[in-house]
Amino acid sequence: LQELPVFAALDLGTNNCRLLVAVPTRHGQFRVIDAFSRIVRLGEGLTASGRLGQAAMDRAVEALKICGDKLRARNIRKARLIATEACRTAANGVEFLDRVEREAGLKLEIIDRQTEARLAVSGCGSLVERDTQGVVLFDIGGGSSEIALIDLTGHRSPRLANHIVSWTSLPVGVVSLAERFGGRTVTREIFAAMVEDVAVRLHAFDGRDRLSHVLASPKFHLLGTSGTVTTLAGVHLDLERYDRRRVDGLWMDRDSVDRMVEKLVGWDFQQRVANPCIGADRADLVLAGCAILEAIRAVWPSERLRVADRGLREGILSELMADDGAWRSRGRQ
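^ that's the sequence the OP posted. Answer follows.
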C-alpha cells in the first residue's frame, strides 16, 4: 500500500498554540493523525504595552518545542506554520519569532489579515451545504476577529474561499476586548459597552451590505468558528465535558443563541469557571466573545447559526492538499 503523504499546519494565535498533522482521505477531506493544542495567552498584556511579555513568550516557546518534536518525528510532505495578530502587532513580534526558530527549530510566518480571513473560510467548506445562497463566516480570535461574506448564488466552485465578496478583520478579539473592559466581573452595562465597541467597528466596514440580496432568504446563515461559539454550543447541549464530535457542524436557531448569551451574561465568574465547557481557561474571555458575536448578529440577523470547531489549521491543510493535488491523484474515493 502506497504511504499517504503527510501534511501539517501550525497556528500560533493570541490565545492558543495549535498543531494538526493529517493525511488526505476522500475528496476535500482528511484524517488527523496527530494534534496538539495549548492555551498559551501569547497576547497577554499586549493591548496595554504594545509588546509580548516575557512569561507569555516563554509559555509559547515551550508549547512550540513540543510541536517541533512532533513535526520532526514524521516525514512531512508539506507544512505551513503561521502566526497571527499577537505577532503581527507586537513591537517585538519578529524578534520573538527569531527566538522560536533558535529554540524550537520552527520557522513561523506572520500572515496578513486577508490571508487569515481566507484560511478561516477554507477550513469550513464542508459545513456549507450545496443549496446555500449566502453565508457570513466569522472567526472570533484572541487578538482579532475575521469576517467574510460569501455569495453562493452563482456557479459554485469547489473552493469556498473563491466566493468571498467582502471581508474585514477587526483589530479586536476576546483577549484584547477582555483586557480593555475587564473579563472577570462583567455587568450588563459593561457587556453592552463591549457590544457597542464592536458595533462601531462593524459600522465602518464598507463591504457589510454585499449580501443584502440574500439576507432574507432561508438559505442564508451565519457560520461561526472559534472558542466562543463552540463554548456556547457546549453549554447549549449541556455537555458534561466538551465533545467536538457533537459540536462541529451543530445548528443553533436564533432563540437558542439568545438564550445561551443571556445565560452566560447572567453568570458570575465562578459560575462560568464551574461550567465544564468554559472552565478557568476561558471564564474571563467568554463574555468578550459573546459581545463580539452579538455585534455580528445585529448586522447580519439570521435564523440559523452553524457552529464550526475548526479554524485556520483546517484551512491550511485544505489549501496545502488541494495545491499539492493530493485529492486529484487519488481519485474520488
